[in-house]
Amino acid sequence: MLRYNNHMHDFFSKRSEAGEAAPNVLALIREQFSGEQRPLKDLSQSNPTKVGLSHAPELFSLKNPENAVYTPEPKGLFHSRAALSEHLAREQRKISPENIFLCASTSEGYAWLFKLLCDAGDIVLIPKPGYPLFEHLAALEHVRTMAYPLEYAHSSGWHIEVAEMESMLASEYGGRIKALIVINPNNPTGSYIRKGERSAILRLCERYGMALIADEVFFDFPLDDAAERESFIGEERVLTFVLDGLSKRLGMPQMKLGWIAVSGPPQEALRAKKRLELIADTFLSAGTPIMNALPSLFAQESAFLQELLTRIRENYLIYRTILEQQGSPHRVLACQGGWTALIESPAFFEEEKIAGLLLQQKGISAQPGFFFDMERGVHFAFSLIIPQEWATSWCREYKEFFDALQTQ
Ligand SMILES: Cc1ncc(COP(=O)(O)O)c(C=O)c1O
């Protein structure tokens, strides 16, 4: 029988160690609030099921007799993929059902793509500022991340530093970089990939043999109808995987349905699909009821999008009106789309301390910039999807909080 020395042996993998990391100060204060049942004003609330949307899509019934039948198709049920393909074609995004893989969420889509493209120790390039989940998604697949910077210029917005990206590819790490992740538009910066950036990115993918992963979960939420935006769906120059799902475009993260749209040079796309099929077949993650419901859910999409778009656009203006009065020390950063506005505020203290005081004094929770790897200044991510009344009153309280700090 094997005997383990407690000091030498650990049951667990290195990749799961973040699960035991100590909660940060802000999480501890929030826990205290919930223990005392004190209401929290969550200015960063991005859960679409918790913001009182009246056009919440009607839920489907499990009673549909088709749900009693299990047809294990690796890519997901054909009729659901066909409905998705048809739906996307109406938005000028052309992709055949053959090139679509249904999965449980875009997060799972990332995990599948990392399995497809990377061996242990390989690298994916991620945007900075960017979505914090990447670190975990990558670490759980033994994949490393390197961040390429986005820089802000007022008021034109965020730009990808393509030269920095290229110098990473040309460095000693270049040989291990397998994929470039772009978020179109990015979370939390709200910046779509510009035309010039797009051609530079495609050139780098070709030159350095990198696959492109484009996350388009926020694509359908432009702040302005005239926003410059172009989807990567169907891109043929390089091996491309576009991720999207129901979490944002229908506000239904609880239904767990995402997808990957594959395109690229024919030989590479074909090989990618064969391998992805093996991965998908191993998990068969997409649930039958939600796949069967997909065509009817799309019928409800436009009412949902309309209500949310109105809210997003009004909230952005509300934040600007309250925080950008003459002489105000705050600034609402330029943003072209998505569910988040970044607010730059005066640096009386460091971000974490300000966030803690804001919570304790006003009961306002707001995600600080360091959550998204922002290194300079004091920033908070404000949700654009909360009801306009919450946005107005909580943003006013945020302003008063800073006014009081200023006079101390
Ligand atoms: C950029 C981005 N991608 C993906 C996701 C996750 O989506 P899903 O619920 O499909 O995993 C989020 C969630 O906030 C996100 O911000």
Automatic annotation (TrEMBL):
<keyword id="KW-0808">Transferase</keyword>
<feature type="domain" description="Aminotransferase class I/classII large">
    <location>
        <begin position="55"/>
        <end position="373"/>
    </location>
</feature>
<dbReference type="InterPro" id="IPR015424">
    <property type="entry name" value="PyrdxlP-dep_Trfase"/>
</dbReference>
<dbReference type="GO" id="GO:0030170">
    <property type="term" value="F:pyridoxal phosphate binding"/>
</dbReference>
<keyword id="KW-0032">Aminotransferase</keyword>
<dbReference type="InterPro" id="IPR004839">
    <property type="entry name" value="Aminotransferase_I/II_large"/>
</dbReference>
<dbReference type="GO" id="GO:0008483">
    <property type="term" value="F:transaminase activity"/>
</dbReference>
<dbReference type="InterPro" id="IPR015421">
    <property type="entry name" value="PyrdxlP-dep_Trfase_major"/>
</dbReference>
<dbReference type="Pfam" id="PF00155">
    <property type="entry name" value="Aminotran_1_2"/>
</dbReference>
<protein>
    <submittedName>
        <fullName>Aminotransferase, class I/II</fullName>
        <ecNumber>2.6.1.-</ecNumber>
    </submittedName>
</protein>
